[in-house]
Design a protein that fits this description.
By secondary structure, the chain is mostly helical. The chain has helices at about 1-10, 15-20, 25-45, 60-75. The termini are far apart.
């Protein structure tokens, strides 16, 4: 999906390091990486934003659940 977004959606640029990090991962490994990266991004921006809008591909709501739960537990 990172490659698709990078190539097909105008105005979205995904860093090559992010794309490379997902190469050759299983679905489960990719989900864990998504949660981990999301939490890192949230930490970097949380003092500058009032909230977040999270979207996952293919209705993968368990990824959102994991992000929210881990974020809440760190507070």
């Amino acid at each position: 999906n990172a490659v698709f977004m990078n190539e097909e959606i105008s105005g979205i640029n995904v860093d090559e390091k992010i794309i490379a990090a997902y190469e050759n991962l299983t679905r489960e490994e990719a989900a864990k990486l998504a949660v981990s990266m999301s939490l890192e991004f949230i930490e970097q921006i949380e003092e500058y934003v009032d909230g977040l809008y999270l979207i996952t591909p293919f209705n993968r709501v368990e990824i959102i659940r994991d992000i929210v739960n881990k974020y809440r537990n760190k507070k």
